[in-house]
Amino acid sequence: MPTLRLALAQVNPTVGDLDGNARIVREWSRAAADAGAQLVAFPEMMLTGYPVEDLVFRDSFVVASRAALRGLAADLVADGLGELPVLVGYLDADGPPTMSADANPGRGPRNALAVLHAGRIAATYVKHHLPNYGVFDEGRYFVPGDTLTVVRIGGVDVALTICEDLWQAGGPFAAARRAGVGLVVTINGSPYELDKDDVRLPLVRRRAAEAGATVAYVNMVGGQDELVFDGDSMIVTADGTLLTRAPQFVPHLLVHDLELPGADAAAIRPDAPLRDEAARAEGSGAADDMTVSRVQLSDELAAPPAPRAVGGIAEAVSGEAEIWQALVLGLRDYVRKNGFGSVVLGLSGGIDSAVVATIAVDALGPERVVAVSLPSGHSSEHSRDDAADLAKRTGLDYRVQPIQPMVDTFLANLSLSGLAVENLQARVRGVILMGLSNQEGHLVLTTGNKSELAVGYSTLYGDSVGGFNPVKDVWKTLVWKLARWRNDDAVRHGTEPPIPENSIAKPPSAELRPGQLDTDSLPDYPVLDAILAGYVDGDMGRDDLVAAGHDAQLVDRVLRMVDLAEYKRRQSAPGTKISIKAFGRDRRLPITNRWRERGTDPVPADTGTGADQTNDARGAHAGL
Amino acid sequence: MPTLRLALAQVNPTVGDLDGNARIVREWSRAAADAGAQLVAFPEMMLTGYPVEDLVFRDSFVVASRAALRGLAADLVADGLGELPVLVGYLDADGPPTMSADANPGRGPRNALAVLHAGRIAATYVKHHLPNYGVFDEGRYFVPGDTLTVVRIGGVDVALTICEDLWQAGGPFAAARRAGVGLVVTINGSPYELDKDDVRLPLVRRRAAEAGATVAYVNMVGGQDELVFDGDSMIVTADGTLLTRAPQFVPHLLVHDLELPGADAAAIRPDAPLRDEAARAEGSGAADDMTVSRVQLSDELAAPPAPRAVGGIAEAVSGEAEIWQALVLGLRDYVRKNGFGSVVLGLSGGIDSAVVATIAVDALGPERVVAVSLPSGHSSEHSRDDAADLAKRTGLDYRVQPIQPMVDTFLANLSLSGLAVENLQARVRGVILMGLSNQEGHLVLTTGNKSELAVGYSTLYGDSVGGFNPVKDVWKTLVWKLARWRNDDAVRHGTEPPIPENSIAKPPSAELRPGQLDTDSLPDYPVLDAILAGYVDGDMGRDDLVAAGHDAQLVDRVLRMVDLAEYKRRQSAPGTKISIKAFGRDRRLPITNRWRERGTDPVPADTGTGADQTNDARGAHAGL
Hints:
- The first copy, chain A, is an alpha/beta fold.
- Helices cover 35% and strands 17% of the residues of chain A.
- Chain A has helices spanning 18-34, 59-78, 138-141, 164-167, 172-179, 196-211, 278-281, 319-337, 351-364, 381-394, 404-413, 419-440, 450-455, 476-492, 501-505, 525-537, 542-547, 552-564, 566-570, and strands spanning 3-10, 39-41, 86-92, 110-117, 120-126, 147-153, 156-162, 183-188, 214-219, 221-224, 227-230, 234-236, 242-245, 252-259, 291-298, 343-346, 369-373, 397-400, 443-444.
- In chain A, strands 13-12-9-8-7-6-15 form a seven-stranded mixed sheet.
- In chain A, a hairpin with a 2-residue loop joins strand 10 and strand 11.
- In chain A, helix 8 packs across helix 9 (351-364).
- The longest helix of chain A is centred in the last third of the chain and has 22 residues, at 419-440.
- Chain A starts with a strand and ends in a 54-residue tail after the last helix.
- Chains A and B meet through helix 1, helix 2, helix 8, helix 11 and helix 12 of A and helix 1, helix 2, helix 8, helix 11 and helix 12 of B.
């Protein structure tokens, strides 16, 4: 069997930065060549970054993407890398430089993969399965491909696939089996979700079995707005053996020698991509329509240089460690890719801001994190102490700015009472943080967790101000777990735990009125989070939640709070998705919505957002 | 030829209000029966409202929609309306009460139409073409139907279609021709866009010609978050004659007698929906796969009672009048459907807030509109006078709340300068408006026009606070035109023009520093809006804009401002869509995005949002 030294480049592109992304391809192709690789693969939409969303509709951008691809092919030759086949994702559309009408039968934009070789675009493949669910809108953007491209490299037939192709049975992997390939390369832009890595390996195994071939999976790494890509690139044989696997959340060049079955030379008809009649003979669904286009790239290769390349299998991380890494990377890349030098946040002494401050310190270093204690007359002494304690432990830039003078001036000039006074305090804090941002250039971080966002337990334009929210998709109970994990991890590494024990242990309070506790308005968080996870992440209805053992009245109250807080979420800052369903484009609900989960009870005709102004959540929809 | 008296019920459902929407169907079916109608059609997704977005994934909601449909069928009998066939849009999914696997071959949620008759769901149709562009995500939500349902009513064969089916050649209308129907009914949830009514009539004519049959088009009316449905229901014959057309923006029962060709009785096989082989014989694309399902509902009908019913053709409105009606309806329904009793906004004396206040007065009446003058030390005397003048002309609830004491307290406690001080003033105003909202329960309106949103000329959490923005999709130059039109319209009707001439005529200023004018930071609005319309609405690139005659340096500056303001737009309030491409889900761009339109110039590697803090726009991205 021929030996192929394959390199998977798990790298971090930036949306829109065509030049920078091409530079990454050149640098990592050089590293791959230096390691003796005979083929190197980069992630989905590598050249443009992913997802580019409506940039797809900008002709100037599409033209630039295609020009960048041609330029890259030439630059690789200039770099002395012309003989190394480089697989790279890019944005394509009609016209050159696609191979032929057969290879790209669709019209309109295409999520494509190019094989760059000898200064040419030697072959292309167009993504067949387009995800149009969750955070994905690829049905909006792309025309699907219906041809499987098989490239012969060093005597091995290599089939090309892209991301969602892997998640569907039939289709390209079934076509790859019929085409008799030795290797399927799949390039990915697969966002992180908790424990998704536990799903990926069995999935790759299923597709490897379906294709009857080794599958090489390369994923990007890095943050893009609400998404964070976790890498987790790997190679799996047809019989399900995991050969090598890259660590999550860091750039990594995975180089591994593969023994692969040699191709049947008779299958090659380079000038006339053959229609694979076998594809029509078996199976069902979309796979039936896939044709196979074969391209001869290179004959037998020399054996790769010694020593044998072994990628190794990175130690798996999971649970809180995995989530923490995702949140750190998501924040770091949002800050870096948007050109900020520092962040600022309000530090209350409570658990949410303590965890966000610690994530920020881990992401950026303490000297780039400004934390401001913003005490009011209702702030407890321990809150201020806890904030100062965290500042001391982490070394971040700590400041104290009492809000009472501003609050008092508002109260002297306006007639406000009750909830309006509570919200006022949060809004004065927001004005101060935004003033610091304007004056000093920091990105403002907001710290509302997923439970708060769900029930609207926040003040619009108050504690919710900010450009990014690292814990937006983290349930309150998970915030606590992350805090404990981070402190324990510090102990394991012989460093000082960053988060004061008191911030973790004390009952949560917004401290907007004397003696206020979250539990005045909300059930205990373990109870609340269980209901919310069912309703938000699981789309469970009221009766299902009650049947699952939750108190009916409590379910009714919680669901109502979630429904009525939609307008607040619509104006909320972006934050890193870590769950199966994050607020934002992952969960799209109307604001104007009279549907209320009520079991079999009738829905009151006058039930609307504004009618609910007596709701006792902090900053309730009266805040609209 | 048989005569059929057809009623099209152009009504205003509310998303999620199953009971309320069913009540509308019963009331308007009663009115249709009273008018002698023999068939009445309601809009797309009538029972659920439209669009319901991710409610589709909530099983409890789907079950409730289906139960509401069955309940409605029974209630219509109880109302003595069992003999009137009622066509109503609803949300379906697998299982009863769909007719048969043949009629509903898909799995998963379906955008469906039911024919209610004699207490039964006599027939259903599933939308064939699913829009997945612009504001529409139907590829995310629905499984497409592949069967054309033809119902024989009073000896006439009636084909059923839904909305997007009308916008695509081939498909159901081509199948309707092959099925030899006399009438095609199309039920719609078609959102308003400027001059869309001018597109609809030719479109309906093309489809009527394609079907070789009369086409009856019924659309909903009313506001749903950012969409406003404008009605414009109509009936057009196969030869293109417009028989009747309803007014836009108001509920309307359009009743018209149609002379229609009688059906070929031989085609009927009620128990075995026949596969229409002809459908496979001609044409191309999706139409080829449509089968025809035929249902016998009623034999020859008695002639409708005299006098002959003639729906009439409503006078067309266009331009500013049409837009004004859309904006008024969009605001009124947002307020009403979300249960608010009143609105509050800041009234600066400038044109944007003057126009929004006038829209609010037209939508809600002056007694439900609170306008607050929020003068600072930089506010000119004429600004206060103009605000008071508008208040006097319209009779709204006018208040004055100087902001200087609060601004001064912030400045005494924080070290702020320049842009930070400008933004501070806007944010103090925001805090005051939100305080009034919390205290008194008003919905806060924000007044930033589309030009400001495009270039980020606003203060985040300052003048941008609010739950709804009536002029979000209105270019600044159009704001002025609307003001002039509204004043002229008042004169035409012999009432007082609401908007002070001075608010229209004076140079626009944010009045955040002495002598400030918008033109300090921005080009003249006619120049700016022309560039923005090309870039935002038209997806034109930099070189195209320069080729169109715009100054290259100015284009570069404006495009950069638009790109860098994405983070602000992501947190902006919803507002009524009136253009071909509104900010919001109509235009989805990443925040993290280093693509800069630069012609052939290289893109600087360090170009990011935060790096641009010297941009002189009011509340620039430093405000993040």
